[in-house]
Specification:
The complex is a heterodimer of chains A (about 160) and B (about 120). With about 160 residues, chain A is α+β, with helices and mostly antiparallel strands. Chain A contains 2 helices and 8 strands. Chain A has one domain: Sandwich (Immunoglobulin-like), CATH 2.60.40. Chain B is mainly alpha-helical and about 120 residues long. Classes of the chains: A alpha+beta (about 160), B mainly alpha (about 120). At the A-B interface, strand 3, strand 4 and strand 5 of A face strand 1 of B. Strand 5 of chain A pairs antiparallel with strand 1 of chain B.
């Protein structure tokens, strides 16, 4: 019996940390009625020093337009490989993009910042329209963009 | 009166006049020469600079805006986003991504877990 309990404790100790390191994060981006074509959005993360840490999502599939997401392009060298496998359709005016992602727990409360660059064809580019620190306290708090993004928030 | 003397007197008179008061054409040429011989004169250089600046500014106004608007270098007016949506007449569909989604190994995602997306 004791050996069984010990084995159970050991197995729990091994599996639980792996589960605790993951966090399902819902990210919602609501666009304004800006009266233009589908918006390209680059959602990416920088670390505490401001260095590029990785991309979370790219809304918009044509790589030739990625250069207009100027901050993202500068940080990544405009490399489409950074968003390979995490690319979807552009988002229309007045529509919303909802993402559910399994993110590393270590991203939160560690100085990481989530950014969104936005661009619309024949309209102004909007680099770093959203910039929010990734914290547990910031979950569920809406943030307003300055041009194309009416509302952005993330929650668990 | 002696004709040769009169002729000489006339010649002297006209010659003195021409020498003292140059004709407008001669004055123009004199000014041109002055300009050419003094290319570094401030007034002349400034006029040239002003002329060039005005021309460049005029050309800039014609060539288009420079306020950083989104411009595609590729001349493809018919090119649209991948599902042709986004304007008032054709709102975007809730288009799912094509095929299985495998996130890049950038340390952000939990290993093997793909983002799930829904666009309204």
């Amino acid at each position: 019996m004791r050996s069984l309990l010990a084995a159970l404790a050991i197995s729990t100790a091994i599996t639980m940390p792996a589960v605790a390191q993951a966090k399902i994060v819902n990210v919602t981006t609501q666009l304004t009625q800006y009266g233009g074509r589908g918006a390209y959005l680059a959602i990416y993360v920088t670390d505490a020093s401001g260095a590029y840490a990785g991309s979370m999502w790219m809304a918009g599939g044509k790589t030739k337009y990625y250069k207009h997401l100027t901050d993202w392009a500068r940080l990544t060298g405009n490399d489409p490989a950074e968003v390979q496998g995490i690319t979807g359709a552009s988002v229309g005016a007045g529509q919303s993009l909802e993402l559910a992602m399994d993110l590393q727990d270590s991203l939160f409360d560690a100085g990481y910042t989530l950014h969104i660059d936005a661009a619309v064809e024949d309209m102004r580019e909007s680099p770093n329209e959203i910039s929010v620190p990734l914290t547990t306290a910031g979950a569920g708090k809406p943030v307003k963009g300055r041009r194309y993004i009416a509302n952005f928030q993330y929650d668990f | 009166m002696n004709i040769p003397a009169m002729t000489a007197l006339a010649a002297i008179t006209f010659g003195a006049t021409a020498y003292a008061t140059p004709t407008p054409r001669l004055a123009f040429y004199a000014q041109q020469q002055t300009t050419e011989t003094a290319p570094n004169a401030t007034e002349t250089g400034g006029r040239d600079v002003e002329r060039k600046v005005q021309q460049v500014g005029w050309l800039r106004l014609i060539s288009g805006d420079d306020d950083g608007d989104h411009r595609d270098d590729d001349d493809d007016d018919d090119d649209d986003d991948e599902n042709g949506c986004g304007n008032a007449n054709r709102p975007c569909d809730a288009a799912p991504t094509k095929g299985p989604i495998t996130p890049p190994k950038n340390g952000l995602f939990t290993t093997g877990q793909a983002p799930r997306v829904k666009t309204n």
